[in-house]
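Might you be able to check the backbone structure tokens below? Thank you kindly.
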Amino acid sequence: MNKYKNNLSNKISSKEAVIAVIGLGYIGLPLVHRFSSEGFNVIGLDINQDKVDSLNKGENYIKHLPKNLVTESIENNFKASTDFSLIKKADALIICVPTPLSANKDPDLSYIINALDSMLPYLRKGQIVSLESTTYPFTTRDVVLPKLESNGLIVGQDIFLVYSPEREDPGNQNFSIRDIPKVVSGITEHCLDLGRAVFGSIVNEVIPVSKTQTAEMVKLLENIHRAVNIGLVNEMKIVSDKMGIDIHEVINAAATKPFGFTPFYPGPGLGGHCIPIDPFYLTWKAKEFGLTTKFIELAGEINANMPSWVVSKVADTLNDLGKSISKSKILVLGVAYKKNVGDLRESPAIEIIEILIKKGANIEYSDPFVTDLKAIKNSSFNTNSIDLTEQSIANKDVVIITTDHDQFDLEFVQQNALKIIDTRGAYKESFSNVIRA
């Protein structure tokens, strides 16, 4: 019997274990709340002092999350800090840091490595470390494991290592962390047992898999599945548009088939941290094995071209009005990457705005979740979200719906806009001034 495993297992089952969440963003903060709601003491660690100060004041800086999420967590013994020496007090360490791409679209594991380096001096026997960040297969085994063992600890005996990918869907009110099955893997059987215990305490169902590289591939498949199917339906949208067919009517009719078809919907391009980025993690790793991921790369190419296609639809619409993009007044509705969140990561709306600005358009935007769009670095662009009024809509040549937030009064917009480019299928009925894109 392993005394460290038994001791940690007892702490978890009795909820005496202290949980440390490293990275307090879109993934880490909901985890903090979930663990604290179950009676665990939770330490939140982040390198951003402003973020830590806000949290300790009870301020929630992620708009789509419940306003009382942070205050409830604090009431349940949560404290945020930039002091990584607190790692010594923790029993379970959960890493929730970004995994972006480099300028060459190669995986950038610097956030993971920096987090591990910050943790290393304070690791001790009897802890479990879980990586949540999306990454390529073998990262946990080949990158995280050597780091943990570099100071003499033996994974599976002294310290325990699991990979359990995040499955958050920001803004989705139908599924909470508790309801989403948690995939868990471990370097050894002891690691897996403890991983199941940790996450089994906060979710209804744990899905164990045999290897950490399997769990890493599970996460990639989930997002690549979406990326490829969205690429397919975006291509179908372009073909349907040329043929004068409404792709949304096609999809909705096809979705009535009770088997063999899952509806995916087109848009102005891919956004968020996962779907536009994760496929490149697999394509990069696949090259190490002498493989080319053709479907994945083709879908990525199609999706990456969608902002330019939207701009071409804007140009066609303005041309019909006897105008060009240059000096036209354009209003962009929604700049977040998906509805009902304020997340700008990889948002296609940003690229659309930047292309239009370069072509000389006068752009304003409205988004209830993004009040200041500092992502656009152009002196002529008003970075403040404007209110939707009769005048602010009617004095524009074109309104582009790039993100269909529920807070938008689409009927009001339709009644006051000269022309609307609907990239999300927001309007279910046909209107003379609404153009599908």
